[in-house]
Amino acid sequence: MQRVQITGNSQRKVKDGYPLLVQDDLKDPSMKLTDGSFIALMASSQFMGYALVAKHRRQLGWVLSLDESETPTTDYFRKLFKQALVRRATSLDPQLPQRVFNADGDGLGGLAIDRYQDYYVFTWYAQGVYQQREMIYAAFEAATDHQFKGIYAKLRFNVEEANLKSQLVTGEAAPEPLLVTEGDVTYPVHLADDLTTGLLLDMRPIRDWLAGAELPGKTVLNLFSQENGVTAAAAVAGAAKTISIETSKKGAKETADQLAVNNIDPDKQEIRAIEVNRYLDYAQKHHLSYDVVVVTAPTFARVKKQKFQVATDLTDLLTATLPVVRRDGQLVIATTANNFSMKKFKAAVTAAFVGSDRHFTLSETFRLPADFVTRKAYLASNYLKVLVLTLDK
């Protein structure tokens, strides 16, 4: 195994549990390392930790164990997976769709594993990590005692053949769609779909909040509805009507499918495939307003010639949204941008109220659900930020 000298600053970060490596962490930044290889990080002759080279943009790789006796073998990864699985089994309903291994939070950056009933979905974010897939799959199968029906893989890095983006790795194919239950709501998930399954597990705090909210007789507007499950959760919780806005026909269809499997007629709800800003303009011109408005703003989106970046455009989006929130209504705002701190997020939200006649009380704050294990030393891993605002009468 190649031994690599790292800088003094990097040594402190590694010791403190910071998992991400960049080229500047190397004493010799010009050093060429093979993608997918294991390396030993060194401070002169002192061992600092093992790492896996996984190049992606500015990223060089991920730190693994800091114990020199824990070499990265199949058994090492088996223990890593077993620990993650036991952690969830003791704290979560095993039937709940959940994140059973959360990348760097559980000890291996660049890989997330989700469970839907008896099926597991591996999402690979870096080719270097994926190059160790045979060892990693074998370790996971051993950790689960082969107790699963099938394993799927979704590749989130660039691959030449589109049909490799999503694939059944082993076992039997899942029903299409596979119906999973979260609380009182059923969701159709598509394990063979390109990159997504049709249900974002990290958005569960919003769905849980809706399940406990007093929605009967109220209207719920869901902006950016695709995959977040918010519309179905609101409808099952008793909302008088849901209005779902999605930029694509595919997203609109997925929202309709989620309603239908819960015996809610999509035709009695409102689902629109339209740009969010265009809909907000329409709603204001027609003096439409809603009791609950949910804004799950994308980190980055491009629709035709327009682009949206949450770090720079969230305030303008919320300024346009405020007129459609009823007096004494509630505004739920979420972002998954890992480079957008909670402090900056709150500042962007507050800025939307400047110059308006609206005021708010912060009712709830949510972060990632418990199965999305994070590292205190790596703030970017705790990326979800949700604010629930109650507006003035």
Automatic annotation (TrEMBL):
Transmembrane segments: none annotated. This is Class I SAM-dependent methyltransferase. Keywords: Methyltransferase, S-adenosyl-L-methionine, Transferase. One of its GO terms (molecular function) is RNA binding. Its EC number is 2.1.1.-. Pfam families: Methyltrans_SAM, PUA_3. GO terms for biological process: methylation. InterPro entries: PUA-like_sf (IPR015947), PUA_sf (IPR036974), RlmI-like_PUA (IPR041532), SAM-dep_methyl-trfase (IPR019614), SAM-dependent_MTases_sf (IPR029063). Residues 4-65 form the RlmI-like PUA domain. Residues 179-335 form the S-adenosylmethionine-dependent methyltransferase domain. It is an enzyme of class 2 (transferase).
